[in-house]
Write a structure and sequence with these properties.
single chain; 276 residues; mainly beta; Porin; eight-stranded antiparallel barrel
Length: 276
């Protein structure tokens, strides 16, 4: 009877003892609730930017020449407006600006939106002359095209969608977005054409009907024109305190539909911000 009573007492205490000691018996430490750096909510900050960019002016004079030579034989036969008269221009600049956004957080995953602004004057230009002698139907065409173009980008910004992953106090992230800028754009083209007969050597045609220049000029100058494009990049935020963070990032911007002119920027930024 004593053995039976003792066995019953042991069995009564065994479940609670084993339940309490199960993790210890397996060699594991007690596990608490997971903790993550809190990045959720609104934030804002300031930044400095180093921008390296390039402008491709190869087709910048095309629309101007096409208008000058509309309904002319020389344009129909030789497609002068498609000539790549101008070249490329590379330049660098520095600037400053700010950003503001909102983060939503699910454990380590961060999704958010951000508006980013930079004030920096990036300038590029190109000028050149291209001349050709062409024959068609017994006539020699002596065509020369002189073109100039420039662009000054004054301000630009992006509206981004961000995604990041929390790693301790660090938040590496990537983003894509819509870009908008304000720029001063100048373009000018002068086309000259003297046509001579192959048999007689006499002048049979002159662009604009005026010797000796036989030239026409067209230009297009725009100030504070809005330009548009897209952006993409990578960055890293570092939570120094609960509310203060530092930032480093790289951003690529491509502006499109500039009337034959292409412009891209590579931005490297350092900044800091405050999150609520």
């Amino acid at each position: 009877m004593r053995w039976v009573v003792g066995a019953l007492v042991v069995l009564g205490f065994a479940p609670s003892a084993f339940a309490a000691d199960f993790d210890v018996l397996r060699g594991a430490e007690p596990v608490g609730p997971p903790s993550y750096t809190n990045w959720s909510g609104f934030y804002f900050g300031g930044q400095g930017t180093y921008a390296s960019g390039g402008g491709n002016f190869a087709q910048a004079t095309g629309p101007l020449i096409s208008y000058l030579l509309r309904n002319t034989t020389v344009e129909q036969d030789f497609n002068i407006s498609a000539w790549q008269v101008l070249g490329k221009s590379d330049s660098t600049t520095t600037g400053f600006g700010g950003f503001a956004g909102y983060n939503s957080q699910w454990a380590n995953l961060i999704l958010g939106v951000e508006a980013n602004y930079t004030h920096a004057q990036w300038f590029g230009s190109s000028s050149d002359t291209l001349a050709r002698r062409m024959d068609a139907s017994g006539t020699t065409y002596n065509v020369s095209v002189t073109g100039t173009s420039s662009i000054t980008l004054n301000d630009y910004g992006t509206l981004r969608a961000r995604a990041g992953y929390v790693m301790g106090n660090f938040l590496p992230y990537g983003f894509v977005g819509f870009a908008i800028g304000s720029a001063d754009i100048t373009k000018s083209a002068t086309v000259s054409d003297i046509e001579t007969s192959d048999s007689t050597g006499q002048v049979t045609g002159c662009l604009g009907g005026s010797l000796p220049s036989c030239a026409l000029t067209n230009s297009d100058n725009r100030t504070n024109q809005f330009i548009y494009g897209y952006s993409a990049g990578l960055g890293m935020d570092w939570a120094v305190t609960q509310n203060i963070f530092l930032r480093g990032e790289y951003e690529y911007i491509q502006f499109v539909n500039l009337g034959g002119l292409d412009l891209y920027l590579n931005n490297v930024r350092l900044g800091g911000g405050f999150k609520f």
